[in-house]
Amino acid sequence: MTKLGPTDLLAIGEVAERTGVAVSALHFYEREGLIASVRTAGNQRRYSRHVLRRVAIIRVAGRMGVPLAEVAAEFARLPADRMPSKRDWERISSHWRGKLEARRLEIERMERELTGCIGCGCLSLGTCRVFNPDDTLSADGPGPRLLPKIDPAAIDPAEIDPAAIDPAETAERLRNPD
Question: What is the pLDDT of residues 13-44, one digit of tens each?
């Protein structure tokens, strides 16, 4: 059995099989600049093994609702001429931490407040008539006025303790949201 290394080149089918992503999606990611390949003399694509990590991050980010444009912006910070180091990934993680924390806070807030008035103008709940009589909040602008967006810039990534996040608990919450 051949020992695998991080600089090995993989055929597109191997990347698709290992990542669970369709070949057409890999082509799309490449066109969007999220991953890169080299061509063989026979014009076949070959991907560095570290592309597997990028595709995994793209998929997880997608499941969390992170737009591809945000993923692309973060990937643009990675070196194009070499395999990203742990320090490169730490820099990305630190930069993304505030954005992810803001998303988490928005999701938790929505979970708590979804059964009450959110100021969307539906007026379908009893609390809507109290918090938004005659849809007066529409004067403040469109959308759910009582669920304003959390500004990621207002969250200091240095104050977030990654060690306090329990990966097993997070995975369990994602598997069983109820």
Answer: 999 999 999 999 999 999 999 999 999 999 99
134-154 per-position pLDDT tens digit: 888 889 888 888 876 666 666
Higher-scoring residue by pLDDT: 35, 80:
35
Q: With beta carbons less than 8 A apart as the criterion, state whether 56 and 19 touch.
A: yes
Check if the beta carbon of residue 12 is closer than 8 Å to that of residue 28: no
Q: Please return the burial class of 15, using the count of CB atoms within 10 Å of its CB with bins 0-12, 13-18 and 19+.
A: buried
Cβ within 8 Å of residue 3, ≥6 positions away: none
Spatial CB neighbours of 103, under 8 Å, sequence gap ≥ 6: 64, 65, 66
DSSP category for residue 2: P
Sheet holding 9-11, edge to edge: 9-11, 45-48, 38-39
**Six-digit token string for 42:** 């026979």
Please give the Cα distance from 30 to 80 (Å, whole number): 13
Amino acid 24: pLDDT: 96
